[in-house]
Amino acid sequence: MGNGVKEGPVRLREDAEAVLSSSVSSKRDHRQVLSSLLSGALAGALAKTAVAPLDRTKIIFQVSSKRFSAKEAFRVLYYTYLNEGFLSLWRGNSATMVRVVPYAAIQFSAHEEYKRILGRYYGFRALPPWPRLFAGALAGTTAASLTYPLDLVRARMAVTPKEMYSNIFHVFIRISREEGLKTLYHGFTPTVLGVIPYAGLSFFTYETLKSLHREYSGRRQPYPFERMIFGACAGLIGQSASYPLDVVRRRMQTAGVTGYPRTSIACTLRTIVREEGAVRGLYKGLSMNWVKGPIAVGISFTTFDLMQILLRHLQS
User: Which pLDDT score, from 0 to 100, does residue 159 have?
Assistant: First the structure.
């Protein structure tokens, strides 16, 4: 009887502690997700704005049959500036921000969640190489699936004159009226096929370099310039691996406004190879990507990490 009387309050206290612990854990998880979303959004916005003129020039070459060279790229930049003004170099950047902010927020946040899920599933505190690669690929696929129409709109705005599309909403309206809503997902398959190696290798390379740095330097956190270098290496490897699919994606996205017929991935690939050659056609603009890609990815990863550290300090 006495034991039964004692057990009641003890059990109640244990249940209350369990509920409180679960509530605290849930709040912590929500804060981590919000922190990742905010850090990812800022990281993507800064990175893309920094390289927007180079990105626009790269898209112009990808969707045309012009031969790419550094001299020709500089000429495109210069004539765009002369004919349309300095701010025209950032034309389409508003559409880029509308896409990149949610894309980067979802990608970085999803990556953190996939790392936690895979870590719990396999019982690792730090993910080994294959799950690390898998987490990055899943994060990129998740983000691309949810934000793809915005990527198509950004590509359309980058390769058309101001008179054709006045703003983002105008692009959506004209495409839906003139080409059908299905067009908003035209080029989605090569995008996902390109994102899997790109995001997978980028996150894998960056996380691996940070892990090696921790192991050999004895410091838990790299300096900001070291993070930039790790991010640059990650961008270089990821973009080089997925670049031909990026060219195919841009051709398919802009088929309605550049005069190319709307075809499948295989037909688009064959057309590019037949008309421009395998290396020259599928890797057109890659040298510009080797300049802008490492800068953008370096800024992106560094900003995300530093924002995460700052938010953790503020929360504690």
Answer: 73
* Of 51, 42, 102, the residue nearest 310 (C-alpha): 42
- Give the integer Cα–Cα distance in Å for 165 and 176: 13
CA geometry: angle 221, 227, 229, nearest 5 deg? 140
Nearest to 127 by CA among 181, 204, 66: 204
Contact between residue 198 and residue 234 where contact means Cβ atoms under 8 Å apart: no
Q: Half-sphere exposure (CA, 13 Å, Cβ side) for 285?
A: 27
SS3 63: coil
Of 28-37, 54-63, 188-197, 242-251, the one with minimum mean pLDDT is 54-63
Helix 129-159 vs helix 52-62: crossing angle, to nearest 10? 80
> Do the beta carbons of residue 246 and residue 61 sit within 8 Å?
no
Nearest alpha carbon to residue 113 among 214, 221, 34: 34
Q: Which amino acid is at 15?
A: D
Q: Is the pLDDT of residue 112 over 60?
A: yes
Report pLDDT digits (tens) over 249-279: 888 877 766 666 677 888 888 888 888 888 8
**Pairwise CA distance, residues 109 & 37, whole Å:** 5
pLDDT band at residue 237 using 50, 70 and 90 as cut-offs: very high
Q: What is the separation of C-alpha 33 from the centre of its chain, rounded to a whole number of angstroms? A: 17
**Rounded distance, CA 96 to CA 40, Å?**
15
pTM: 0.76
Read off the amino acid at residue 182.
K
